[in-house]
Amino acid sequence: MAKVKRNNYWQRISIDPNVCHGQACVKGTRIPVHQIVHMLANDDSVEELLSEYPSLTKEDILTCLDYVASLAEEEVHPFETEIG
User: Fold this and answer.
1) Taking a C-beta distance cutoff of 8 angstroms, is the pair 65, 12 a contact?
2) pLDDT digits (tens, 9 = 90+) for 6-62
């Protein structure tokens, strides 16, 4: 299986406010990362994705998954505010 180097997302993923309303997309395409992940979650295979989107590579798909996983790992630390 191809290996994706963590945090190299921006080599394969772009976020541009002028493309797909600023959604994260596979770089050089208008294919949103969420579309790839939804298709995999709905039991489409990597091979089916590659067939449907010939401009994609297996590494693009793996990077999408790794990117989404990193978002799920993100820790949120709310600011505490003093009232009064």
Assistant:
1) no
2) 667 889 999 999 999 999 999 999 999 999 999 999 999 999 999 999 999 999 999
Per the CB < 8 A criterion, the answer to whether 16 and 22 are in contact is yes
Residue ranges of alpha helices (H) inside 1-84 are: 33-41, 46-52, 58-73
Q: List, in order of start, the domains of the chain with CATH numbers.
A: 9-72 (1.10.10.10)
Query: How far is the CA of 47 from the CAs of 16, 28, 36, 51, in angstroms?
Result: 28, 20, 12, 6
Instruction: State how far the Cα of 83 lies from the Cα of 26, in Å rounded to an integer.
Output: 44
Q: How many CB atoms lie within 10 A of CB 9?
A: 19
pLDDT at 7: 66
